[in-house]
Amino acid sequence: MGLFLNIWQTILLVSLLILMAWLLDKLFCQKAGYRWRKILWAVLAVWMLLPFPMRLPSAMELTLPLPKGISMAMPKADVEENAAEDERQALLASQTVPDGETAAGRKDAAEGEKGTGTKAADAAAEPAKTAAQVEGTAAGMTPEDFMHKGARDREFAAPLQEQSGADMLRTVWIPMFYVIWAAGALAALGLRAWQYGRMRKKYMTEAIPCQNEDVRFLLEKLCEEQKIRKKIALYYHESFLTPMLFGYFRPVILLPFFPYKKEELEAVLRHEATHYRSKDLWYKLLLVAVCDIYWFWLPLRLMKGMAFQDVEYVCDQKATRNMNLEKKGIYSSIILKTMSGRSNRKLALTTQFGGNKRMAKKRMENIFRMPRRGLGAAILCVLLLALTTGTACVSVKMEDGEGGQQPVEETAGVDMENAQTADGGPAIAAAAQDAEQVAKTLTVQEALLDGADWEELRDQLAERNPGVVFEAEEYNFDGGQRLMDVDQFLEQGTIMSYTWSSGIVTLGREGRLADLSEALEERGWTQYLSAADRELLMDEDGSVYGIPYSGYALGLMCNKRLFEEAGLVDESGRVLTPKTWEELAQYAVQIKERTGQAGLCLLAGDNAAAWHFSNIAWNFGLEEFCTANADGGYTAHLNDPAAVAAMEFVKDLKWKYDVLTPDPESEDYNTGYAHLTQQTAAMYIAGNDSVGMLVGENFEPDDLVLTAIPAGPQGDQHSLSASGAIVLSANADEEEIEAALDLVELLLKGPELSEEKKAQIDRRIAEEAAQNIPTIPQFAVWSNEELQSYEEEALTALGNMDIPAAKEFFDAVKTPGNLKGEGAFTSDLYGEILKVMHQVLNDPEADVEALMNEANENYQKLIGAD
Q1: Which has the least CB within 10 A, 77, 164, 258, 740?
Q2: Is there a contact between 436 and 425 (Cβ–Cβ < 8 Å)?
Q3: 573 secondary structure, DSSP code
Q4: Which residues have a Cβ under 8 Å from the Cβ of 471 and sit 6 or more positions away?
Q5: Is 598 in contact with 681 (CB distance < 8 Å)?
Q6: pLDDT score for 411
Q7: Cα separation of 610 and 616, whole Å?
Q8: Where are the beta strands (DSSP E) in 282-416?
Q9: Which pLDDT belongs to residue 295?
Q10: Which ranges of 554-666 does DSSP label H, i.e. alpha helix?
Q11: Mean pLDDT of 562-590
């Protein structure tokens, strides 16, 4: 039990220091910096891995009282030792009695004393020295025989004695705790190792080595500057939106396909090289390992979260230490650019340049602020002194119900059978009642918080839901397809997570997600579900398996300035946006002839090219790229006449109209925004949620006109759309579902227009306007006209754009049937589309129909194999 107590003493002391560090950060973070805290987390993590805490011989005893009315039984070992001593005394008394007394005489004297009312023997609880023992010895038993007989009697009687509470604690519960602890730790560490292996295989398989000599030379120069001898490989990855350092023994910097300027690229590479120089990957691994080993203790998760932030803060300060204000501004702008796009999810075993809005703000403040010299070191010394003093000088013991002190390590246990509670009821019954009232745990995906103050939210949730404990984790559940298995999602307890809406109903019908329909109906939220949400989140029986959370649709972004220069405006000066694809081609020709700039930026650099082509193909009349058959198989339609006609149109944009950017195969998700903001392309197909990318020196918010995707030859008009919803694992009960809806309400993601929601809308619009981001309405995830009307009023009062500039887009996406989602097997489909696009954009004589037939055959084989 001593080891058990030492472990918990260390856990509680470390938790107290975590709380102290958190409070001190609130008081001194602006003056002390973050390096002291980063060192503290490392010390605490190593301390948690030590098997035994240090303790001085003269340690102070800290007594913990047991519940009133519970007595401390004498240790079993002490009982046996006392019994053996009594037997020896009895034996000696029978062999040698001073002054001629006999054993029988001593017995008579003892009985005489008892008869006179003396109760000393009973009070001392002496083992009885019966006449049978004495007579046995006198009858010829040697002292050795007598001792062996006593031992045999005790051995025979021991199994018949009921174990005390502490015996059960020592022999059953503590070993069981160790077994559960070890199993959980091994499972967590094993899962972490598997995730890392899978991550490395995926990243390095899909990554493309950097062939740019200038970029590689820049990295080598920075490594030499920081005295890094090990070679760091440099790769590009198409799915990344932020730079990342990955790998322990063979480090790799993974870059997104983003058109960095030289100064920006230097800032990015310096940041990642600084991470490597500081051994931050190993630092994060240490924190992750400690949290996985002590998986049952939640305060360590708080430590890990703060430590991961401190890694970035300290790295920023080191990387910008010798920079002037101009370079620090460039460095900060990269943080903003990374944050403004769709961030990669958090990965514990990597370092990433980006972060959420709240963290980005703190990082920029940290870059331009110099910490007060010595203050952080002083705080660190005080906390480390508290750690060593608390561990070395305090010994925890327990105090029994009568006020007497007994060391826990030496105490046999508690008589639970006869112990009574304060109200007279059995202690066992009270314990059982307490067990029934143990709070449930609802684990929330951190990404749902969207930068909100989790501590404040948790306090508010605790008031509303006293029976539920809320945790925040950094993992993500993505419909069981990408980041977390459905089964794994279910096995990890009650989880509240974000995922794409497509496929939610299927998972719900399979019993893998919680049915939220009753809870939503009771709150009156069901009436606000849009037609699209009802189709994606509700089955035919009315069961709802997701809570609408976010959404976007693709539209046509137009550069107002280039349209005006080309004369594409009406009599009132309003931009004439194209209503059909043929009209788009004609407008693009006119723009190129009059301005010299490309009419359209069409993606063909990666699989995102299929986002553009899907919109064209659907509007040329294609229903779906593949359909499910009655036998469970799938049929590909990539060579459908409508799809072939759409690809012919793509070919014409290059060779007939000549309106595309010079090298479409180099265009990816990010470059389209760059062309719009730099006035080098007039049109780009993009989502309404990405207007934050439209920030540049030569671009004003009013330069944007967001309109609907043009219609096809037969009038078909569709927009690629995706929406996300909150789901709960199937084991969520009514209380946990209500707690989840409370969190949605507190995050102001519900459908009702409250005063807090109004303030949030006002704040968002004002912040975007201050950052020179075009202010447009958000994609309506709930169908509430009152909420949408208030948003329009706020945009008129606080925004920086003309409201009609995006009206055509939002009117179109509200039209029934306009929105279309990605179908099945999109990865395979997009790969085939990209190959065809490359061929038709490079060969003016390319046979589009033959290429589409070949692509369809390949696609059919792929979906048939699945």
Answers
A1: 77
A2: no
A3: S
A4: 298, 301, 441, 442, 443, 444
A5: yes
A6: 39
A7: 10
A8: 351-352, 394-399, 405-406, 413-414
A9: 86
A10: 560-565, 581-595, 609-619, 641-655
A11: 94
